[in-house]
Amino acid sequence: MMLPQMREKAVHRCGHCRFFVSIRGLKETRYGCVVDVKAYGNLEKRIPPVVPVLEIIKRVGLEGLERCLEKGEPEQQSCGKFRLKG
Length: 86
Description:
The chain is α+β, with helices and mostly antiparallel strands. The protein has one domain (4-70). It is 35% helix and 15% strand. The chain contains 3 helices and 3 strands, in the order αββαβα. Strands 2-1-3 form a 3-stranded mixed beta sheet, with helices on one face. Strand 1 and strand 2 form a beta hairpin. The termini are far apart. 17% of the residues are buried.
């Protein structure tokens, strides 16, 4: 038996999530999840499709950037903070 709100989490993938964005550095662009960045995770600030790496470092530091990039697999099952892109 599955709860209705859990069905959405089980069906969707990170690539469909609003928090899954491109993180653009000087030489390369990688995907990552910005849900742990307070301004984006609390929806205080609009989430752009491409976020400059310097903005993430400024908000959460290098350790926070590492956490964002660890969640960079678009086919991974979505987490509990999933929000559909739209």
